[in-house]
Design goal:
The protein is α/β, with parallel strands linked by helices. It has one domain: Dihydrofolate Reductase, subunit A, CATH 3.40.430. It is built from 4 helices and 10 strands; from the N terminus they run E-E-H-E-H-E-E-H-E-H-E-E-E-E. The longest helix has 10 residues. Bound molecules: NADP nicotinamide-adenine-dinucleotide phosphate.
């Protein structure tokens, strides 16, 4: 079975974007010049599964930053809504988290990058996440799009390590105990 992996940044109070989707606060104090391990993480995954909210932002990236398959989960979008230039690089699926992981497993994926707040919450609720790398940015947004939400049951995590950066970013890696 494919395992789900999270690599995401949040404000200290747990938001991944301002309410309007703005993420300009993610790189304070020269953080954009630091190596937070994104490239190494990206190399380790077979593809990306993102929510439609994250797609709405990512679809405006120019140039397209991913050279691995991207699955957008949505009950409203269809393949016909995608910009033609993306060809076969992006697929829109209307599937549950479990069905999605079964389908990507059938395509040979071992590790899936799960991205987007609501999507992460649903994959956590379905026990499909193996580990979580969370980079906390030293800002209190007070409101915004939350990373975490309600879960059907409590989950224990095992702390694997924490790194601090000159910019003030603090990155922790956790395994999720099955
Ligand atoms: N800080 C960071 O590192 C970081 C990383 C990623 C994203 N972001 C930001 O986060 C924001 C998007 O996050 P978000 O929480 O609003 O949305 P999201 O998780 O990206 O997308 C949620 C949407 O995906 C669709 N969906 C389909 N299957 C789903 C399922 N099983 N579980 C949940 N959603 C499912 C639904 O849309 P339909 O109505 O189409 O079905 C749902 O409304 C953007 O502003 C993005 O820039 C920040």
């Amino acid at each position: 079975m494919t395992t789900g992996h999270i690599f995401i940044a949040s404000s200290l109070d747990g938001y991944i974007a301002r309410q309007d989707g703005d993420v300009s606060w993610l790189t304070p104090n020269g953080a954009e010049k630091e190596d937070h391990g994104y490239s190494a993480f990206y190399e380790s995954i077979d593809g990306i599964i993102m929510g439609r909210g994250t797609w709405d932002v990512a679809s405006r990236f120019d140039p397209w930053p991913f050279d691995k398959p991207v699955i957008v989960l949505s009950s409203h979008l269809s393949q016909a809504d995608l910009p033609p230039g993306l060809g076969g690089a992006v697929q829109v699926w209307n599937c549950s988290p479990h069905e999605t992981m079964q389908r990507v497993a059938a395509e040979g994926w071992n590790r899936a990058y799960i991205d987007g707040g609501k999507l992460i919450q649903s994959f956590l609720a379905a026990s499909l996440i193996a580990d979580l790398t969370l980079t906390r940015v030293p800002v209190l947004l007070g409101q915004g799009i939350p990373l975490f939400g309600r879960l059907p049951k409590e989950r224990a995590l095992m702390h694997q390590g924490t790194r601090t950066f000159a910019s003030g970013l603090v990155q922790s890696h956790y395994q999720i105990i099955p």
